[in-house]
Design a protein that fits this description.
By secondary structure, the chain is an alpha/beta fold. The chain is built from 14 helices and 24 strands. It has helices at residues 22-31, 48-60, 86-89, 99-106, 125-133, 168-178, 194-205, 237-249, 265-273, 311-318, 337-344, 374-386, 397-400, 406-410, and strands spanning 2-8, 13-17, 38-42, 63-66, 72-75, 83-84, 108-112, 137-141, 144-148, 157-159, 184-188, 209-211, 217-221, 230-232, 253-257, 277-281, 284-288, 297-299, 324-328, 348-352, 355-359, 368-370, 389-394, 417-421. Helix 8 (237-249) packs parallel to helix 10 (311-318) and helix 8 runs parallel beside helix 12. The protein is globular. Bound molecules: ligand EPZ. Residues 23, 26, 94, 122-127, 162-164, 167-170, 191, 195, 308-309, 331-332, 374-375, 402 line the site of ligand EPZ.
């Protein structure tokens, strides 16, 4: 198991290229099930979650490989085992997004129910409801979702809003089932996240007929079959936002390339409000801070609101603000594993239900801390860059799920992060 030793404080200055999006890649890899040939995906990052997804597709019967130029190839000519086993699903919840495409392609799918995780309960009832609306017969047995549609699926008008708004992977699942259904499907209250739009664009390239992409109403005219294609995934807006926060927390100046600032307006707006400069530049932007961090308030929301996947990183940043800030979590009300760890580094945080009140401190102080979920861990890396002394982060595998060799990307611009195997 690896740990990180991070020396701080440092100032990050230089250029960092943002990788392709993990959360776009995972459902698009699942969409390759529908292609029935070799799908070639460009820009898919080298992450442990991507490897797990490759293993999952391999168990279904697909051949998954990386070509020498880094492209990820998924050959789904043969699918002979439409089963998502617990052993894999428990390692990565996003495995659930094979349910829709398997059902659509094979008329049957068995996928383990994902359990809760470090960020909360994470039910999948909306996925199941949406697929049932399309005519799937679904039962839950021995911890598995067993879905059947022996005579195919039928298009329908479906409302997919839930208690916390839309669902990203639920929308992806129903969308991937609807593309081959008979007739027209309308998904109302569809998730508008850029990753869902990227999936829809990929499906259209494969021959699907989806309109309303990027809006809360997706209309899908079912087609008879899809073909395998070559497709490049969008840049990772959460990785980009994490690097923006890294520039801000270290009072540095980072030029981010391969970064779609237009997908990140809520984040950019928040940064500007708290005294961080963000200037669009070529295919990315320059992020810098000269003065103090000003206090701010953040409420996480579905896209285009502020993303829950950047809540922890921005809490680390606001912990150094000149005054009091508040962070309200409206997507995953229990996503606060980082609060206790940041407090160990001298942040002054008080949790009140699904909110955290942050009294800004002058400095953070290094401490041994524990990575929990992926984004909470990223927040600890940011805090470690700014804190005085050597921060030791245990359970670094959480970070490796979503950030490709983060130390090799940040050290050239001034970070002092050492990966040590223990
Ligand atoms: C996706 O998870 C992302 N994962 C998450 O990123 C991200 O935090 C989340 O969307 C929200 O943006 C991937 O894309 C692989 P949801 P997902 O269904 O789709 C409730 C990361 O750090 N809900 O949009 O599973 C749910 O509990 C990860 O990269 C139901 O009630 O999230 C939550 O409150 C973590 N019933 C809200 O909806 C359901 O059936 C939104 O969750 C489904 C969801």
């Amino acid at each position: 198991m690896d740990i990180f030793k991070i020396e701080g404080p440092v100032r990050l200055v230089g250029e960092v290229a943002v990788n392709g999006s993990k959360n776009a890649s995972l459902p698009i890899m699942a969409a390759a099930i529908l292609g029935g040939g070799e799908t070639v995906l460009k820009g898919v990052p080298h992450l442990s979650d991507i490897s797990v997804c490759g293993e999952l597709l391999g168990r279904l019967g697909c051949k998954v490989s990386r070509s020498s130029n880094g492209d990820l190839c998924v050959d789904s000519t043969t699918i002979d085992n439409p089963v998502g086993e617990y052993e894999i699903v428990r390692r990565m919840r996003a495995s659930i997004c094979i349910l829709g495409p398997l059902l659509s392609r094979c008329g049957r799918a068995e996928v383990s129910m994902p359990g809760g995780c470090a960020i909360g309960d994470r039910p999948v009832d909306m996925h199941i409801r949406g697929l049932r609306e399309l005519g799937a017969q679904i039962e839950l047995k021995n911890g598995y979702i067993i879905a059947e549609a022996p005579n195919g699926l039928r298009g329908k008008d479906i409302f997919m809003g839930g208690p916390f708004g839309s669902t990203v992977l639920g929308t992806a699942n129903v969308l991937m089932a609807a593309v081959l259904a008979k007739g027209r499907t309308v998904i109302e209250s569809a998730a508008c996240e850029p990753e869902v739009a990227d999936l829809a664009n990929c499906l259209n390239k494969m021959g699907a007929k989806i309109t309303g992409i990027g809006s809360p109403r997706l209309t899908i005219e079912g087609v008879k079959e899809l073909r395998a294609v070559e497709y490049e995934v969008i840049p990772d807006r959460i990785e980009a936002g994490t690097f923006m926060a890294a520039a801000a927390i270290t009072a540095g100046e980072l030029k981010l390339t391969n970064c779609r600032v237009g997908d990140m307006m809520a984040v950019v707006d928040k940064l500007r409000n708290i005294g961080v400069e963000v200037e669009a530049d070529g295919d990315g932007c320059v992020v810098s801070r000269n003065g103090q961090v000003k206090p701010g308030d953040i409420t996480t929301q579905p896209y285009p609101g502020f993303p829950t996947d950047l809540q922890a990183q921005f809490m680390a940043l606001l912990s150094l603000a000149e005054g009091n800030s508040i962070v309200i979590e409206k997507i995953f009300p229990d996503r606060f594993m980082h609060v206790a760890e940041l407090s160990r580094m001298a942040a002054n945080l008080r949790k009140e239900g699904a909110a955290v009140i942050i009294a800004g401190v002058k400095r953070l102080i290094a401490a041994p801390v524990m990575a929990s979920d992926l984004r909470a861990s990223a927040a600890l890396v940011l805090a470690g860059l700014a804190a005085e002394g050597t921060t030791v982060i245990n359970r670094v595998y959480h970070i490796d799920r979503g950030y490709e060799r983060i130390e090799e990307r940040l050290n050239p611009v001034g970070a002092k992060i050492e990966r040590v195997s223990v």
